[in-house]
Amino acid sequence: MSPRSDGHAVRVPNADLAAHAERLLSAPRVERRELALGFDDSTADSTAVHVGGSAFFPLLLEDVGRATSSVHIVEFGFKPGKIGDAFVDALARKAKEGVPVRIVVDRNGSSPEGSSRALYERLTGAGVQVCRTSGTQARAPFGPVGADGRPTRWNLHSLGHIDHRKFFVIDGRIGWVGGAGIEDHFEDGRFHDLFVRLEGSVASQLQLVFLASFRWLGGAVPPSDVPALFPPHEAADDAVPALVLHNAPGPFRPITDAIAASLDAARTTLDVINPYVTDRGMIRRIERAAERGVSVRLFVPGTPNNWACGLAQRFHHGRLLESGVEILEHPAMLHAKAFVRDGEEVLAGTCNLEAWSLKRFFEIDVLVRSPELARQFGERFADPAVRISSLGRAPEGAVDRAKSAALAAVSPLL
């Protein structure tokens, strides 16, 4: 089978992932429309959720340390600090060993040419290839960071389209998808987040997303590397259904559609974990789930890092509470984004429930149908969060209600 277009997306069958990658790597240029990748259901041989930077960062570094063929990373925020330096050291070692290390970062989230310049000079000096996206520059550089004579071209079609993704692909066999940047506030617990680790065939879908993005930004990967980047996978007997969902700017938004479908399909239980809940359509779907008898829990930060978005979100708390939703405000800056439905399906990644993520940013999520992974979410995230969270509340007092209403009205712009 070969890739097919439905007008909005390039749909790549699992059997054609490597061949499609080879075409992208051989092409003189990759256009942004080619990043709208749609996939069929795949499988994961193992899945696990790891909650808190003190849990997932050491395991990520272990996987990097064991890499033998490639390390590919997309990160909105990769900055200097304790954890940033640990990753630089690990990635530089790999590159010096001859393992290709390639990274895509967002210019706004990582500042590779500004405050983080020294970090990226260390990476590129060690042989790491780094490209960056830029959603706020009308004329932007393309090609690897640090390359001589970096070309620039007009970037008008990408203005406003931040790369908010955070994922890792190691040796084409291991994938990590979550919400945390490589930044100290995720490592020390000030921001509470999680990653899902997957092994198996689904890693090949993450690999294709990475390669398409890297080539779009001007990075070069030898087509001869494709066999190593897409190693053969033989599904284990207990493999579970898994699927990579990738929102690239444009009309094809599979994550947005999957979130809506999950909220609408909930029958018994629904946990919604998200720091920025302001999209009225999604909020109404959460309300309807509770109204039809689903036990709904909404986990949000008690003290959001974005005060305006926090007040806009709280505007909706009254109706959510009236519909039967239990709102739990986490004492840390809860930054995780996940949906756990009916104890059998998990959707987790980078997408927030606000207009920028749902409609404009680059986002990535993974959908896994696994009672075991859902159980892990309960044990490792939900149960501890319930014990330390406060019950959510609606705005109190005329001033707070007025502020919340005003900010809710302009929330698509926040």
Explain the overall architecture.
The chain has 414 residues and is an alpha/beta fold. It has two domains: 7-242, Endonuclease, Chain A (2-Layer Sandwich); 254-413, 2-Layer Sandwich (Endonuclease, Chain A). It is 36% helix and 25% strand.
Give me some keywords for this one.
23 strands; alpha/beta; Endonuclease, Chain A; 414 residues; 2 domains; single chain; globular; seven-stranded mixed sheet
Short overview:
Helices cover 36% and strands 25% of the residues. The protein has 414 residues and is of the alpha/beta class.
CATH class of the largest domain equals Alpha Beta
Distance between the termini: 43 Å
Q: What structural class results from the helix and strand content?
A: alpha/beta
Give the overall shape: globular
Strand content: 15-25%
> What helical percentage do the residues reach?
25-40%
Per CATH, the superfamily of the largest domain is Endonuclease Chain A
CATH fold type of the largest domain: Endonuclease, Chain A
CATH architecture of the largest domain: 2-Layer Sandwich
The largest pleated sheet is described as:
9 strands, mixed
Tally of distinct domains: 2
Overall pLDDT confidence: 91
Q: Quickly count the helices.
A: 15
Count of strand segments? 23
Contiguous runs where pLDDT drops below 50 for at least 5 residues = none
What is the C-alpha radius of gyration, as a whole number of Å?
21 Å
Major sheet: order of its strands? 4-15-22-21-20-16-17-18-23
